[in-house]
Amino acid sequence: MAALLQNFRNTIIVSVILGLLMVAGYYVHRTSDAAFWQAVFRWMHVFFGILWIGLLYYFNFVQIRVMPAIPAELKPAVSKHIAPEALFWFRWAALATWVMGVILAIDRGYLLQAVTLGLSETPASVPHGMIGIGMWLATIMFLNVWAVIWPNQKRALGIVEADADAKAKAARIAMLASRINTLLSIPMLAAMTMNQTLFG
């Protein structure tokens, strides 16, 4: 068991297999094919969302706050090795979370109502407006990852050539954009979790 757990790739492979066995178990007891696929999309949406927001919180709760206290000779360990790897999983998890969320909204039949915040509907459709707010917040966050954070982090980390001033400016822009995502994340999570609990 220790040999398995010491290898990250093998640990993830076994975890995915166990997850798929759970999915297969639910397939046997499904109430309908539509409900089953909605459950699969929700599972994937939540998994990728945890990976995305978990890394967002790692950057903001830990890395950004602690970096100034790290001795200069140790900073390259973070900026050259840890941060690029974390940003890889961060940006692709953001994309996968957003895609799975859109697929789930289409499959559940409320994408248009959510995107328009339920404004064209009756007061009974408040749930669509509330989940729509969460979806718009998540969309802003997703676009922020790909259009602002990642391009600036590439300059700040030296993945793309830039002079010292450009690197410092890019690091500040990336940090502020990341803080915007942190700010939006808590209301977005409230919309996602409360909507599901209260309205199904």
TrEMBL record:
Which keywords belong to this entry? Answer: Membrane, Transmembrane, Transmembrane helix
What sections of the protein cross the membrane? 12-28, 40-59, 88-106, 126-149
InterPro entries xrefs: UCP032086 (IPR016988), Urate_ox_N (IPR010389)
Record's keyword annotation contains Membrane: yes
Top-level taxon of the source organism: Bacteria
Q: Where is the Urate oxidase N-terminal domain?
A: 130-195
Under the heading Pfam families, the entry gives: Urate_ox_N (PF06181)
UniProt name for this protein:
Urate hydroxylase PuuD
Which organism is this entry from? Phenylobacterium montanum
